[in-house]
Write a structure and sequence with these properties.
With 254 residues, the chain is an alpha/beta fold. Strand 3, helix 4 and strand 4 form a beta-alpha-beta unit. It starts with 12 loop residues before the first helix and ends with a helix. It binds zinc ion. The site of zinc ion has 4 residues, from loops.
């Protein structure tokens, strides 16, 4: 299948979804920009570009904070809710590219690894192909990713759904799908990995013998209205930080 060529006239998101197109989104730019050194991670102020305010509730779904599995379970519940209420809406999902089976209600921000130790949880491109297929089968047509997603993850969505979309993304020129480019590798056991079955069935090791596979999420019980949750304009003082460090010590010991 050839990559898509030429520039199509820009159409609105609803127009594209209404015509049955599978739209691929990428909302993980804050994390990606921090890793590349473009933005300072501090206040973590999200920037949102609302390009299509006319969309409104015509598109329903979830974005960020949870992994692909939990996100799709949530979208499934939304779909059932819409059907029960006899409402029609396009479904969307933009999960994390991190595995978070152990996070609680607030999602990955409660994991002790957030935000700078999340790398061992990164999904593979194969996890993302599986997610794209499951999302499509569920009826989601705006399929994307949020924090942790890298360009190769988005490419994996586009490649998995190439039969439905009718074309491969331009970035597919840079590799062979399902590892097929490994067929020229100098080592024969690596050449043996040039196939879908290998990558689809691989159980991946973390390589961290003294680490747990799951973490205990923080649960400070800080909810809306708590003074510590107010975003302040002035810099956090040394004294305020010390109080938080003490509180963390106490919470960790529990
Ligand atoms: Zn995010």
């Amino acid at each position: 299948m050839a990559p898509v060529g030429g520039k199509k006239a820009k159409r609105g998101i609803l127009e594209r979804l209404n015509s049955g197109e599978v739209v691929i989104g990428d909302g993980g730019f804050v994390f990606a920009l921090e890793k590349r050194g473009y933005v300072k991670a501090g206040p973590w102020t999200p920037e949102a570009a609302v390009e299509h305010p006319e969309a409104g509730a015509s598109i329903v779904g979830v974005n960020c904070h949870f992994d692909p599995t939990i996100s799709l379970q949530t979208v499934k519940l939304m779909k059932e809710g819409l059907e029960a209420a006899r409402l029609k809406a396009h479904l969307m999902s933009q999960p994390l590219a991190y595995h978070t089976p152990d996070c609680n209600k607030q999602g990955f921000i409660d994991l002790p690894e957030f935000p700078f130790g999340l790398e061992p949880r990164v999904t593979t491109r194969w996890d993302i192909q599986k997610y794209a297929r499951e999302a499509y089968n569920l009826g989601v047509r705006y399929i994307g990713g949020c924090c942790g997603f890298e360009p190769y993850h988005i490419r994996a969505i586009a490649e998995e759904l190439a039969p439905e979309r009718g074309f491969l993304p331009p970035a597919s020129e840079k590799h062979g799908s399902w590892g097929s480019g490994l067929d020229m590798h100098t080592k024969p056991w690596i050449r043996a990995r040039a196939r879908k079955e290998y990558w689809e069935n691989l159980r991946i090791a973390s390589g961290r013998p003294y680490n747990p596979s799951l973490s205990k999420p923080d649960a400070w019980g800080v909810t809306k209205g708590t003074s510590e949750l107010m975003q302040q304009k002035e810099a956090t003082t040394e004294q305020q930080l010390r109080e938080l460090f003490e509180k963390q010590k106490f919470k960790s010991a529990q």
